[in-house]
Design goal:
By secondary structure, this protein is α+β, with helices and mostly antiparallel strands. The chain folds into 2 domains: about 55 residues, no CATH class; about 55 residues, no CATH class. It is built from 2 helices and 4 strands, in the order βαβββα. It has a two-stranded parallel ribbon with strand order 1-2. It has a two-stranded antiparallel sheet with strand order 3-4. The chain binds flavin-adenine dinucleotide (FAD).
């Protein structure tokens, strides 16, 4: 029987659940969607991968002094995720070919 039930498996719910479990609580995370991750999940259609929400994360790569809260949570949990530093910032890295993400201003 869980001591704590977290409703929602977005980054917030997963962080709360993982930290509570890290400190010894019995946690259950409930999710109404078919995929965990909330706004930050992804999906595949006809071989193309889509981000449902965020596609820009800063502070998750090699810098051990990063102040990114998610990076600090992952360090506390002893978890590592693969991350490639933006170089230059805003330049997305795909295996092949290489695309550049451009911000454009649209006339109103
Ligand atoms: C289009 C878009 C682009 C974004 N781009 C970026 C970006 O580039 N960089 C960045 O850092 N951030 C970005 N963000 C913000 C970031 O995605 C969110 O701040 C973060 O994912 C929110 O996490 P959360 O856990 O607070 O909420 P959510 O991700 O919304 O998670 C809530 C979860 O709770 C579930 N839920 C709700 N009600 C119930 C219920 N009654 N029972 C069970 N489950 C329930 C939902 O299904 C969902 O899975 C973007 C967001 C969007 C929408």
């Amino acid at each position: 029987m869980p001591e704590i039930i977290v409703v929602g498996s977005g980054i917030g719910g997963l962080v709360a659940g993982a930290l509570l479990a890290r400190y010894g609580k019995q946690v259950m995370v409930l999710e109404s969607h078919g995929i965990a991750g909330g706004a930050a999940h992804s999906f595949v259609r006809q071989g193309f991968h889509f981000d449902s929400g965020p596609s820009f994360y800063c502070g998750l790569s090699a810098d051990p002094d990063s102040v990114n809260p998610l990076r600090q949570v992952l360090a506390l949990l002893g978890e590592k995720i693969p991350a490639t530093a933006y170089d230059p910032l805003g330049h997305y890295h795909f295996r092949k070919p290489r695309y550049r993400f451009l911000a454009i201003e649209m006339p109103i």
